[in-house]
Amino acid sequence: xxxxxxxxxxxxxxxxxxxxxxxxxxxxxxxxxxxxxxxxxxxxxxxxxxxxxxxxxxxxxxxxxxxxxxxxxxxxxxxxxxxxxxxxxxxxxxxxxxxxxxxxxxxxxxxxxxxxxxxxxxxxxxxxxxxxxxxxxxxxxxxxxxxxxxxxxxxxxxxxxxxxxxxxxxxxxxxxxxxxxxxxxxxxxxxxxxxxxxxxxxxxxxxxxxxxxxxxxxxxxxxxxxxxxxxxxxxxxxxxxxxxxxxxxxxxxxxxxxxxxxxxxxxxxxxxxxxxxxxxxxxxxxxxxxxxxxxxxxxxxxxxxxxxxxxxxxxxxxxxxxxxxxxxxxxxxxxxxxxxxxxxxxxxxxxxxxxxxxxxxxxxxxxxxxxxxxxxxxxxxxxxxxxxxxxxxxxxxxxxxxxxxxxxxxxxxxxxxxxxxxxxxxxxxxxxxxxxxxxxxxxxxxxxxxxxxxxxxxxxxxxxxxxxxxxxxxxxxxxxxxxxxxxxxxxxxxxxxxxxxxxxxxxxxxxxxxxxxxxxxxxxxxxxxxxxxxxxxxxxxxxxxxxxx
Length: 549
Known about the structure:
Blueprint: H1 23-32, E1 37-41, E2 44-47, H2 48-64, E3 72-76, H3 81-92, E4 96-99, H4 106-116, E5 118-124, H5 128-137, E6 143-147, E7 167-168, H6 169-174, E8 191-196, E9 206-210, H7 211-225, E10 232-234, H8 242-245, H9 247-250, E11 257-259, H10 266-276, E12 280-283, H11 285-292, E13 306-310, H12 317-325, E14 328-336, E15 341-345, H13 357-364, E16 369-370, E17 376-381, E18 386-387, E19 396-401, E20 408-409, H14 413-419, E21 425-433, E22 439-444, E23 449-451, E24 454-456, H15 458-466, E25 471-481, E26 485-494, H16 502-510, E27 521-524, H17 537-546
Parallel strand pairs: 1-11, 3-4, 3-5, 4-8, 5-6, 6-7, 10-11, 10-12, 12-13, 13-14, 26-27
Antiparallel strand pairs: 1-2, 8-9, 9-20, 14-15, 15-16, 17-18, 17-19, 19-21, 21-22, 23-24, 25-26
């Protein structure tokens, strides 16, 4: 048999093959732009040279504690320089970074620390009280390091908590030399971070990322967000959420500036955008609402157009128009914790601007096409694993395949096997594929409402609700019904200064939807959301169920 000349004497070697890692992004930026500002935090300015040096000091200090490959370093930090340093210093040692949701209660934190087998825990003093309670409940006993933010504002709504650690973060970092030489990853499949899912039912699952995926997300985020050289990125998205959609690693690709923001407040956002020339930010729809509904005294004018990446439900046309008027260009994304954050982008085509409003709205309602580094995105029948027709109507499960899909769930082989059944990642989301290859979500599989044998998409009903100018937030879930099995129940949050009745809401929906899809019940109160702005439908399902049939 003839040998393949393209496979003969053309082996991998260190000269032509190196494992991908996002740590290389920071190293390159520090080499090329050493004095360029990498981090802005209050009065603090950190250059790329200093950013790399501090990350290496952190790695050296952790290594002195015995931290190495296979260990977990947990952090409970706000969007501060320490969080950015942790994203680089921790994986430099070969260890895995576990970022804890800062809104969690002590029980959930204790579970994560034990499940992750945390060896070190870095804690912002803002969260020391809840973490102290969690540590008292946890089985593990990590080395605890206090982060005392020098830029913690005097005007903060609550003071710093007590010190609970054995060491101070700044002293810990400064105790080590800046000569740490990164030799890892030996394999780009090495784990880099651990992120826990929301855990709306039972304990959350630990999603594991690898160096390859995180590195590729750096390039993909630059492309999807339209970042040029030296962008200025405002941290309105929590860095604990999917590692901040991998943007802590992304900005090094283009020598960007991180503008830290401890709390998402309208005045602080407008001041940062105007004072620092912010060009990009990410956030849930609630961040858009905060900007648009800000007091006039808190708003600032700025000359640049700011790119706003948002996920979750497509923003209503009125919100998009309001954001455009305020100087923001909204980019709609979709993804999951298991896909390193956003893996789908509604890539807007210039010719769509000429469409009438209804047609534009229809285009904007779609989640979009796969990220540049996602190999495949499709909609399938989850039972037969056959692709559904790309007709914009046939509903199936959204599935992903590629290098920005998680390694799997930590210590949960059964859940990993189920998620990867058939060689695809099963998202649990239901959607349709349009003829032009654009994906549109229809619902989570558990959020489809089956009324009288008819399937009702809660997203479709929510889209109709958001078209009412008096509705600030809305969510639709199934309510048990003796006759129909289930009927739509709407939870509505009314804009300040407006009033609505149940009859108003139902009439509005009937003007846009088939009557059987319209809510039979409307509840008025604040719609509960997670710390990342996602609506907590499981709470609303419980409330609707309690109403009875």
